[in-house]
Amino acid sequence: MSSIPRTKIALIGAGQIGGVLAQLISERGLGDVVLVDIMGDVARGKALDIAEGALVTRSTINIEGTEDYSRIQGAHIVIVTAGLPRKPGMSRDDLIGVNAKIIVSAGTNIKKYAPDAVVIVVSNPMDTMTTLMQHVTQFPKHRVVGQGGVLDSSRFATFLSWELGVAVEDIHSMVFGGHGDTMVPLVDYATVQGVPAMVLLTQKYNGDKSKAQEVMDAIVKRTAGAGGEVVGLLKTGSAFYSPAVSALTMAESILRDQKRVLPCCVMCETEYNAGGHYTGVVAVLGHGGVESILEIPLSKKESELLKVSIDACKDNIQALKTLGFM
């Protein structure tokens, strides 16, 4: 009697994000985990630590740590978090050169050992590294997707909930564009159970629309700089829990064919006039990866800001070409 194959999830990078992902996957029983890192003992140590808590968490998954990429063979999904984290004063774009080398290595091994997997890229600068991953693997565009929009939208919702004094789960928000300073929080689509956030902000400030706009502008600015704010506070690392749970949300939608509509970094051809570039928009994630891209109406200003964001990614891609990575 043959056994039913178990879902296999490969995590490339056993740093803070990779470790939290392994823990969350174990607790949720989403699939068996292979945690890969060039520092094999770090990967083995984290895997062992998580495995030793299985009785308490009632986890039945298998988890291993290794430096051997061949162990990812048969993975259904690969989440790439490997790369140098930001330090205070650094932008995500400052990481291009060093992290590109890591992505080339990871992509080459993913193509060799997990040619049928869906790849989720978390490494920064995320839009640029997602583009490079698709270039290296030559996977179809629907099987290479970047995590950024889920995290940025969650940050936007968090700040709105604090300002409005409402439960964050009742806020619906979307952030488009690159995962960086040029991201585009969509203010007109930010709602609280269907009520526009700007309406509630205006009510809070006794009908003062200019004050409400001032507050919203500050929230938008804080959202764009949220990652840097965490880096500045930690001083020795960057955000890890919120990126991990955001990537897991995407992975779960794909593995369980949930068809969630999520903001994420996908290859857009004619959509949003992106011209065949990766950028953050809303997409349906289901079995096999990106099932469709939802093209929603944007204001003239939002369209202009999205173009700025796409152009910034184009500049990074040109930098990769200059450095010989593409």
Question: Which descriptors apply to this entry?
Answer:
six-stranded parallel β-sheet; 326 residues; single chain; three-stranded antiparallel β-sheet; globular; 18% strand; 14 strands; 45% helix; alpha/beta
Explain what the structure shows.
- This protein has 326 residues and is of the alpha/beta class.
- It has helices spanning 16-28, 40-51, 54-57, 96-113, 126-137, 149-164, 197-204, 209-224, 226-234, 241-255, 300-323; strands spanning 8-12, 32-36, 63-66, 77-80, 118-121, 144-146, 171-172, 175-176, 184-185, 191-192, 195-196, 260-268, 277-286, 289-294.
- The strands form four sheets. It has a six-stranded parallel β-sheet with strand order 3-2-1-4-5-6, sandwiched between helices. A three-stranded antiparallel β-sheet has the order 7-10-11.
- β8 (175-176) and β9 (184-185) form a beta hairpin.
- The protein is globular, with a radius of gyration of 20 Å.
Question: What is the secondary structure topology, with strand pairs?
Answer:
Blueprint: E1 8-12, H1 16-28, E2 32-36, H2 40-51, H3 54-57, E3 63-66, E4 77-80, H4 96-113, E5 118-121, H5 126-137, E6 144-146, H6 149-164, E7 171-172, E8 175-176, E9 184-185, E10 191-192, E11 195-196, H7 197-204, H8 209-224, H9 226-234, H10 241-255, E12 260-268, E13 277-286, E14 289-294, H11 300-323
Parallel strand pairs: 1-2, 1-4, 2-3, 4-5, 5-6
Antiparallel strand pairs: 7-10, 8-9, 10-11, 12-13, 13-14
Helix pairs in contact: 1-2, 1-10, 4-5, 5-11, 6-8, 7-8
